[in-house]
Amino acid sequence: MSANKRKATRKPVASKRWTGRRWHLVLAFWLVCAGVLVVRAVDLQVVEHDFLAHQGDIRNLRVEPLAANRGVIRDRNGRPLAVSTPVVTLWANPQEAMENQQQWSKLTGNPIIDRARFARRVKAHASREFIYLARGLAPEQAESVLSLGVPGIYSLTEYRRYYPAGEVTSHVVGFTNIDEQGQEGVELAFDKQLTGAPGRKKVVRDLLGRVIQDIELIEPARPGEDVTLSLDLRLQYLAYKELMSAVHRFGATGGSVVVLDVKTGEVLAMVNQPGYNPNNRKGINTASLRNRAATDLFEPGSTVKPFTVAAALEQGMVTPATAINTHPGYLRVGPKTIRDHRDYGVIDVTTVLTKSSNVGTSKLALSMDPQVLPAMLGRFGFGQPTGVRFPGESGGVLPIRAKWRDVERAALSYGYGVSVTALQLAQAYAILGNQGRRVPLSMVKVDEAPQGERVIGTDTARAIVDMLETVVGQLGTARRARIPGYQVAGKTGTVHKLTATGYAEHRYQGIFAGLAPATDPRIAAVVVIDDPDQSAYYGGLVAAPVFSTIVGGALRAMHVPPDKPEGVIAGEPDGEGRT
Q1: How far is CA 363 from CA 19, 295, 327, 360, 415, in A?
Q2: Residue 558: how many other CB atoms lie within 10 Å
Q3: What are phi and psi of 26, to 5 degrees?
Q4: 448 in Cβ contact with 261 (< 8 Å)
Q5: Is 444:390 a contact under the CB 8 Å cutoff?
Q6: Given pLDDT bands bounded at 50, 70 and 90, which one contains residue 32?
Q7: Half-sphere exposure for 87 (CA within 13 Å, toward CB)
Q8: For residues 440 and 446, what is the distance between their CA atoms, to the nearest angstrom?
Q9: Taking all residues of the chain, what is their mean pLDDT, rounded to a whole number?
Q10: Which of 22, 114, 329, 439 has the fewest C-beta atoms lying within 10 Å of its C-beta?
């Protein structure tokens, strides 16, 4: 065989061998790849399964808080005064957001969270995993941000407090902060009871941060307890309207009204002017937040005279018919001259109250042991908080002295040198109306009237109420306090306003405190008009008419039967008084 033929014979054999080798190489390559994949699969599915599952969970599974609904505050008839409504809160994970800065442009011009604001907030807290962006949003407001799909922005449900009666109940109910923590009023006093306990749940979120599945309820939220107040919203509205009208009509700077149930000690209405809207507190004057009826002190003036007479009756010194000589209409006590509106001459103790004689009550006080009158005022609750559990309630001022000067004893008898709140004064009159028994005051509804403690004798209390009926009669100082169909007992007071520099010469507070129906008192109320215009400032002119309208409405709303025929007025023929 020639050389050329041998070469031709070798080429096909070599080619077949090379093809076989390449096939083996390819096969080996794919076998290696398959082996790597199998090894990797085993590694992922077996060796690192738990780790990878955990990493996936923390990116999609989240434990979220469940907001607890704050308890509802209601009036005595079940009407809501404070409720919690669900709102949406937007929050961000700055670490996640920083990894997706190219997406921030979607927020440009957004009315809820603008890009520039978002960038500042995220960069300032870049190391954190949670920051608030906007709270208390309506669902449509939150959706305008969430729909943009910006990574790192999430939402959660919270609650915002809403007050259906607004300004009408604001001083009593108070308000909460953005975290629903009580800040004023009942919201603060009963914060622990109203506050619920938040829960937790496990959820799955998609890449846009939306919850797509609830996985597990870890701990249910526990809502707060409801609180039922003693307030009657009908009476609260009436008191609010009448007080605001009087403050505007007489050009006053403010005022307060307190209405109590004599038998149970419940606060049925408590309003103040000026007021505020708890649903919108932007730019609010902090002075308007005060519940003046429970915090602000004033000298009660002539409204204290019934308690001076009560002290004298309890000592057995006088009876309602005992004569007192008030001639010549003034009394010199030490360096001070005490004056009546005019010379009433010789009058009985009842007329001392009817005409509001300063001379008459001063003579009664000076005839007692010096400690008797202060002790009596203390028994009626002067100088101590009422215990109504209202935040910031003042205890008033009742001086304690080892030795009283005559001028101090005389001034105390007609309401100077002692300071009270409207709530304290109303409590004192409620004691008179409750046959001399003092029951604890309450801001929450009372199911059964408490027994109370005795302050003065039943006969003394009844005698004082009978005498106070004449104050509302034709010769008394409070004819404008009459209520058609009901007997009214009460007392006016007009005092110089006490300022930082002393008594203001031409500034006053007009006061009326009273009971109705007088034959069996159910309502005690106090009206204070602060700093009315000089043209009308007497308590009988500015405060008594407010009492008449409010208490008349309260008696009818409570279905208290009238205790006198229409047109019959307690008292004597027509006359006029001013104190």
Answers
A1: 137, 32, 12, 5, 14
A2: 14
A3: -60, -45
A4: no
A5: no
A6: confident
A7: 18
A8: 11
A9: 87
A10: 22
Phi and psi angles of residue 136, each rounded to the nearest 5 degrees, phi first = 70, 35
∠ CA 487-488-490, nearest 5°, is 155
- Residues 378 and 397: their CA atoms lie apart, in Å, by 10
Q: Which residues pair with 134 in a beta bridge?
A: 90
pTM above 0.90, yes or no: no
Distance CA(247)–CA(242), nearest Å, equals 9
* pLDDT above 80 for 213: no
Closest CA to 201 of 54, 56, 60, 66: 66
Distances (CA, A) of 156 to 134, 501, 524: 11, 55, 49
Is residue 313 packed enough to be buried (19+ CB in 10 Å), middle (13-18) or exposed (0-12)?
A: buried
302 tagged catalytic: yes
Among 302, 356, 413, 548, the active-site one is 302
Q: Where are the alpha helices (DSSP H) in 254-347?
A: 292-295, 305-314
Q: What percent of the chain has pLDDT over 90?
A: 61
Compute the distance between CA of residue 424 and CA of residue 254 in angstroms, rounded to an integer. Answer: 18
The rounded distance, in Å, linking the Cα atoms of 427 and 536 is 27
Largest pairwise CA distance in the chain: 171
> pLDDT of 152-170, one tens digit each?
888 888 889 999 999 999 9
Residues 6+ apart with CB under 8 A from 21: none
Angle at 77 between CA 559 and CA 425, to 5 degrees: 70
DSSP state letters, 468-519? HHHHTSTTSS-GGG-BTTB--EEEEEEEEEEETTEEEEEEEEEEEEEEESTT
H helical segments located in 67-184? 94-98, 115-124, 139-146, 170-173
